[in-house]
Amino acid sequence: MKTQLLLSATFVVWFATTALAADYDFYAGVRYPGAKLRNDVQRYKVDQAGSGDRTAYEHRQVHWWPRKGVDVVEVKQGMPLRTWTPRRGDREPFEAHLVGFRGIGNTMSSKFGGGGDGGPWEPGVVLRLPDERKRCFVKGSFGDDDKKFIMDLYVKEMNRIRAGIDKTTRGKRPSADTRWPNNAKPGEPGTMQVESEHSSGCPEARRAAKAIRGSTKRSPRRLSGTAKVRSNAPSTGGT
């Protein structure tokens, strides 16, 4: 009976840990908190305050570094602990928690533009070092095994984010067919309509084709939808 209770308690703890890890937000640290203060971020400590007189020249001392939640961070449930291997051979592997991602990755080949190793384009990572300091490492900082770990976790994080975004579809304006009929292909005289699930655009077909080739400096046609956007690139925005 005691063995069964022990196993049940172990399963409950394991299940709770797994659930909390699955809910961890790896992009929480890059979002602006808005008007509310974060409880996990330490406030500036005023060691010597002034009188408040804006016209007075007086000494004021503020302790601003290091601050918890900014410069040093605590381990939270869901932060993976891993031994990271720097790509540079003159640096030793080290153990650190993954706090979050910085920037956006790409699952397509990183050879675009003539560089990269041909694999995916991983985002930067923010790590909690053994001395509790928080530090950002840009893409390409770590070896292939670490890169695969980053990308596998990044893809899961993107799927989690996409599952929670607004699913409202956006269509073109009713007047688009009258003002900018879809009567031409790229490079031909006339206008064309470019639509996706969340946007629509109506550029001039010949001008759009030249803009794609980078051979025109003329301003493009206005977009359909609620927003009017001007750009030197083909118009793809909209509502």
How would you portray this structure in words?
This protein has 239 residues and is α+β, with helices and mostly antiparallel strands. The protein has four helices and eight strands; from the N terminus they run αββββββααββα. It has helices at residues 2-22, 144-163, 176-179, 205-213, and strands at 45-48, 61-63, 81-84, 94-102, 124-128, 134-137, 194-195, 200-201. Strands 3-4-5-6 form a four-stranded antiparallel β-sheet. Strand 5 and strand 6 form a beta hairpin. The radius of gyration is 26 Å and the shape is extended.
Helix content: 10-25%
Question: What is the end-to-end distance?
Answer: 63 Å
Oligomer: single chain
Q: Strands of the biggest beta sheet: in what spatial order?
A: 3-4-5-6
| Gyration radius, rounded | 26 Å
Shape: extended
Described by strand count, sense and barrel closure, the largest sheet is: 4 strands, antiparallel
Q: Which structural class should the secondary elements be placed in?
A: alpha+beta
Order of helices and strands: HEEEEEEHHEEH
Number of helices: 4
Number of strands: 8
Unreliable runs, pLDDT <50, ≥5 residues? Answer: 5-20, 215-239
Question: How would you summarize the topology of this molecule?
Answer:
Layout: H1 2-22, E1 45-48, E2 61-63, E3 81-84, E4 94-102, E5 124-128, E6 134-137, H2 144-163, H3 176-179, E7 194-195, E8 200-201, H4 205-213
Antiparallel strand pairs: 1-2, 3-4, 4-5, 5-6, 7-8
